[in-house]
Predict the structure.
Amino acid sequence: MIKTVSTSPYNGQKMGTAGIRQKVQTVLQKNYLENFIQSLFNAIGGVKGQTFVLGGDGRYYNDIALQKIIKMAAANGMKKLIIGQNGMLSTPASSHILLKNHADGGLTLSASHNPGGINGDFGIKYATKTGGQCSSAVSDKIFEETKRITSYKILETDDIDLSKKGVQKLGDMEIEVIDPIEDYLELMQQIFDFDAIKKLFQSGFSFVFDAMNAVTGPYAIKIFEEALGAKKGSVINAVPMPDFGGLHPDPNLVYAKDLVSLMYGDHAPDFAAANDGDGDRNMILGKKFFVSPSDSLAILTDNYRYIPAYKNGIYGVAKSAATSTAVCRVAKALGVDCYEVPTGWKNFCNLMDSKRITFCGEESFGTGSSHIREKDGIWAVLFWLNIIAATGKSVSQITRDFWKKYGRTYYLRFDFEAIDLKVADDLMADLENNLSSFEGKTYGGRKVTSAHPFVYQDPVDGSQTKNGLLVYFEDGARICYRLSGTGTNGATLRVYIEAYEKENFDENPKDKLRSLLDIAMTLAQIEKRTGKTKPDLTT
Ligand code: G16
């Protein structure tokens, strides 16, 4: 029976860079999830007769949220739900299944790289029929709905068994439980040279993939161990857990520290990679070698000819403004366009849909292509494996050759975490007001050539977005400031710094960028306003 339940709004449920992201304790409040889902359905004009893809990264509360969403979808007249077996679907797999089935939308229950468990985070990513995250205009509409919601609809029924593949009915709605991996594996086989990668593994090439106890474990076992023949046990932390076994599933030098220690130790395998909670982020490591995500995007672009799906040519490339400019130099050499967009994968989607770009990436360990409309962790790892198989070079050789060809862009991100929201907003507002006064002045021996907010006009829909503040120096160095849109604890100020060197490749990035960090802290008065004398996290 369909029940209409009265509810009252919370103080608005705002979506961040990629959907809604909250502490589990917040989401556990009465009707919190129901309010958001009904508001979403209302904001998009209802879901009657529509088909959605549903899944998640298996984190705490997903099982309960999935059942609520299924029952609400049925009560709202949805025609069909395609659900990953046991409710599991990585974000990239979900985007692919959505596109392949011409579905109307998708919901991925994940707070991405944020920690899980009862004291961790929960989130929902909403994708439109384009396969990518909805535009800000749509998320604003959902936000408005959450402020005035008075009731939601739900079917009163038993929980649905999601453990068996196949089709079942719930009222008038069809539910198809699918293998979450099969379609995705098939797509990867269409893109990469699986035979060449198989031969690489047969030759004794050693490899570790850290799934961080999150969604990609079963995908990685099926793809790397079973389909490509990597040694059994190459995939570590392979069983998805509701609290990720206590790990913070963010594949970077800080949170994947066991993997990093392995790669910097005496028994390092030839290659290692990690993915995040929902499988869209990746980290690439060689023996005693870390590839920065900005370099990774540039290197993949420079080597596109080795990949069967791209060998006939690529459209342009794109990066977020906060990402280093390394890929722009490659684009110039290849004679293709390089777009700079605001942070958030959704900003790449129009460029992909209009065939302006093939590859895109972000400093936050996200790389991808137009094969789907999300970043794709396993795709990036396969891309690297394919280049290694084709060239016979190691990760560090490939990267060093790249630096020799284009120069090295030293790059780091410095995070100042858990800042009071008002302090952070005031800091950014005042910094923006002061930007023009920096121009022409010299700080720490470096002259500022220009300083301005980053403003983007989408070439397809004409929409304008302002996100981040940029300061450029005469020697090619650059500082970017922005506030995170995915944190759940106060505000996180991110300071992104790069410096370009044509010939000097071997300095430690932390040493190289120290003086620029001092300048960045001075210009934004970080210590005076936040009391912090150094960043909380450097990646
Ligand atoms: C999300 C978006 C990414 C974006 C990132 C930025 O990542 O999907 O496109 O780069 O947020 O995070 P922040 O605003 O904290 O800098 P994910 O992996 O959380 O979905």
Q: What stands out?
A: The pocket of 1,6-di-O-phosphono-alpha-D-glucopyranose is lined by residues 17-18, 112-113, 280-281, 343-345, 362, 364, 366, 484-487, 494 (CB under 6 Å). DSSP finds 17 helices and 25 strands in the chain. Residues 183-406 form a domain with the Alpha-D-Glucose-1,6-Bisphosphate; Chain A, domain 3 fold (CATH 3.40.120.10).
